[in-house]
Design brief:
Order of helices and strands: HHHEHEHEHEHEEE
Structural class: alpha/beta
Number of strands: 7
Radius of gyration: 17 Å
């Protein structure tokens, strides 16, 4: 006999249901069938230095698990600029993080999407986008846009379930660091952090908490 808690209802797990519905409607845009787990979200947020001045841009925040981890990390909600394509997720994000700037837009056109919403370089860009659904030139272009909007050596933080980098590596253009596998997430994931090597000596490296 199953206990009630072993079979959670949609009302008890609303975010998982929202993600699953979004994935069925557009799997290439949603990329995941459930929100990031706490361990994964905490690892991603751990690469952000809350003392670094400037906004923190989040791409594809979904229902906000990484956003919440960023706030817990010490990033003030009013510094958060959230770019989300799904209109239902945008509504939810505005309810959960009323001080944040929530933009419904195309993350792959990030520079144009945020141009009227930020007035200084970003401290970090944090992404939960399904990068493998896009060709390599678009993925490199996304990184270039992020670096162009950010302070020198600011991190571009991306999680993946894959065993390889979600952005094809170009050592002559950017450095890359990968976390240990996060077994507590389902499915297990890794976090990749990319930094432009055009300003290699401009800022110290920041290691993630628990990575």
């Amino acid at each position: 006999m199953l206990h009630r808690s072993a079979c959670p209802s949609p009302k008890e797990r609303p975010d998982e249901v929202r993600f699953l519905q979004s994935w069925f409607q557009n799997p290439l845009r949603t990329g995941a069938v459930s929100p990031s787990g706490r361990a994964l979200a905490r690892t991603m947020a751990g690469y952000v230095d809350p003392e670094q001045d400037g906004p923190v841009i989040e791409l594809g925040p979904g229902t906000g698990p990484v956003t919440a981890a960023l706030v817990a990390r010490g990033v003030a909600p009013e510094r958060l600029v959230l770019i989300e394509y799904n209109p239902e997720f945008c509504k939810l994000l505005r309810l959960r993080f009323p001080a944040a700037t929530v933009i419904r837009g195309d993350a792959y056109d990030m520079a144009r999407t945020v141009e009227s919403h930020i007035d200084r370089p970003a401290a970090a860009v944090v992404s939960s986008l399904p990068l493998f659904t896009r060709p390599a030139p678009e993925r490199h272009g996304l990184l270039d846009q992020a670096f162009g909007l950010s302070v020198p050596r600011a991190p571009f933080i991306q999680f993946t379930y894959a065993v390889v980098s979600p952005v094809p590596l170009l050592p002559e253009r950017f450095d890359a660091h990968v976390s240990q596998r996060i077994w507590a997430n389902l499915p297990p994931a890794r976090v990749w952090v990319y930094r432009s090597n055009m300003h290699r000596a401009a800022a110290p490296e920041l290691n993630a908490v628990g990575a």
